[in-house]
Amino acid sequence: MPELPEVETIMSLVKRRLTNKKIIKTKVLNAKLRWPIETRKLRNLENETIKSVSRRGKYILLEFEIEKAILIIHLGMTGVISFTNQEEYKRHKHDHLLLFFDSFIFIFNDVRKFGSIHITQDLSEMFLIKNLGIEPLSKKFDGKYLLQLSKNKSCSIKEFIMNQKIVVGIGNIYATEALFLSKIHPSMQAKRLNLSKSKSLVSNIKFILQKAIKLGGTTIKDYVNAEGKPGYFTQELNIYQKKNCPIHKNNAVRNIKISGRSSFFCDICQKK
Question: What is the fold, at CATH topology level, of the domain defined by 143-265?
């Protein structure tokens, strides 16, 4: 599933292509996504200009010049954004939405249909956005913030930092990598976090995410960006899906399930 680095990478490419561009026509090929595409609302965006493209958590936001119109794109598990010249477009089985511009087409394709397309006039009241936690690369996300919210939390520290109501965009791979660098066992109870460990964890979360963004995200299976390229952070993974610890090279990496997700760790580096 695309997480913050992947969405940030795609958003940056979309931003370069769509900022200050006018939508000439919209076409819904298949409205069936996690929530049905609202075809009539989309038509209201025809002949309107996109004034900005940004990201909130794992959502890509297209804001229009008309007052309070925002198109929200969620990639879900297999959502792919791509662009093609109008004369070269050939419909693919899982294409759901086309946005026509002067000389090219924006395509949203989603094989498993867990993605979604929404239009809102108020982000603060939008049900997918309003309860999101803070951005992990913001100044507000620091050791004190994480420590304060971790008090009395009996869930694992990995579940805690992956909770989108606490902080957004930290997926399974990035949580695993940050915990390894911080020498924190993934199943440690969040309430056992102290200020020193909290500061270390926040620092490593920021480091991992920034590095992943620089390398275009992580491709384990299906992910490609809007140019069809994979993410190269895969080559920088320390512990995720590794056989041996990169520090204790003779020690096998352990893998336990936490909330149904594979959690790789070194039992020497990350003592519980």
Answer: Helicase, Ruva Protein; domain 3 (1.10.8)
Active site residues: 2-3, 58, 261
For 149-196, the pLDDT digits (tens) are 999 999 999 999 999 999 999 999 999 999 999 999 999 999 999 999
Query: Per-residue b/e over 235-269, b at no fewer than 16 CB within 10 Å?
Result: eebbbbeeeebeeeeeeebeeeebeebebbbbeeb
At a CB cut-off of 8 Å and minimum separation 6, what does 127 contact?
none
DSSP string of 216-241? T-B-SSS---TTSPPPBGGGG-SSTT
pTM exceeds cut of 0.85: yes
Q: Find the angle CA(252)-CA(258)-CA(263) to the nearest 5 degrees.
A: 30
Residue with tokens 């002949």: 47
4-125 carries CATH number 3.40.630.10 = no
Structure tokens given for 90: 């050939």
Q: Where are the domains of the chain?
A: 4-125, 143-265
- State the distance between the two ends of the chain, measured CA to CA, in whole angstroms: 28
Q: Strands 116-120, 104-110: parallel, antiparallel or unpaired by DSSP?
A: unpaired
What are the tokens at 2? 């695309």
User: Coil, strand or helix: which one is 205?
Assistant: helix
